[in-house]
């Protein structure tokens, strides 16, 4: 068993540390740097065909749903096409206004999630073209989609999804660039591709510093509630971080869009409710800073993920984790890694069954 885990204690730990390789394998066939080109042979689209797409829907469950939310930000910002995201279990019952002029993107690690498959069938029934993003070859989802793009994360055994998520984000990033190109919104693609190719090494740098995160576990392992804050494209990353903590450490964690803090969760903040804040450089930075002030004023314990040169945060937060720089889209992947590590080390500290958390299944094939 130890051999299967490649010397790691848990599959989840192994899978977190495999991410540089998983992402390299996933993007490999899609980037042709010599010709400054993106390649999506499995999803051929002409400019004309793309222009006809009125709206893109992305539907999924669990962690794949969080990837979908990030995908919305990426596609809308880069390709300027409206994107609607839905939970598969909601979509299938709400008579969604989807039709043959729209594209339905369905994301699933396993390709077998019952609600996700039902949503796919609902979309097809309503005439939408369908694209699957999936990690398991030969599973049901790719068989039923018009087109499929695979993530090449390799088998994911740990119930809490890690490398499947970051490889989904990598595909959504490349897909956004592809759409942007087709829509005539992107002239210079090379830097975006180079950023992608640099990413695996940047993840390695974060992983090499894993002890920084590990040492937080004994300090915070006895808390009963956590608040995760993010804004914009980092809000779904906060959701994913909170989900990881809930799934495997059984600590209640809630993610909030930081601007909404004043409409409720601020009432909960005191020295017993640690706050994890995602504070990338960029347009929301000053806003996050003021959210952080509000946490500090209320004696909240603050764990901040930020970038070098953001020294205001360093002075204010109880703990600071530094993330390497990239473009705002790809930084979502980099910010995810310490959140996965944090959930993992918290669960190890609490002695839970990390790979097989109670009441959860790797893929939910019943409704
Ligand atoms: C289960 C798993 C999650 C996963 C979700 C969706 O809840 O425990 O890790 O994100 O199903 O699975 P899928 O295979 O469709 O991505």
Automatic annotation (TrEMBL):
Domain SIS residues, every copy: 46-185, 216-357
Known function: Catalyzes the first step in hexosamine metabolism, converting fructose-6P into glucosamine-6P using glutamine as a nitrogen source.
EC number: 2.6.1.16
Species of provenance: Desulfofervidus auxilii
Subunit structure: Homodimer.
Compartments it resides in: Cytoplasm
Reactions it catalyzes: D-fructose 6-phosphate + L-glutamine = D-glucosamine 6-phosphate + L-glutamate
CC annotations in GO: cytosol
Active site: 362 (for fru-6p isomerization activity)
Portion held of the full protein: 241 to 607 of 607
Originating gene: glmS
Example of a GO MF term: carbohydrate derivative binding
Gene Ontology terms: biological process: amino sugar biosynthetic process; carbohydrate metabolic process; fructose 6-phosphate metabolic process; protein N-linked glycosylation; UDP-N-acetylglucosamine metabolic process
Enzyme class: transferase
UniProt superkingdom: Bacteria
Keywords attached to this entry: Aminotransferase, Cytoplasm, Glutamine amidotransferase, Repeat, Transferase
Protein's recorded name: Glutamine--fructose-6-phosphate aminotransferase [isomerizing]
Upper classification of the organism: Bacteria, Pseudomonadati, Thermodesulfobacteriota, Candidatus Desulfofervidia, Candidatus Desulfofervidales
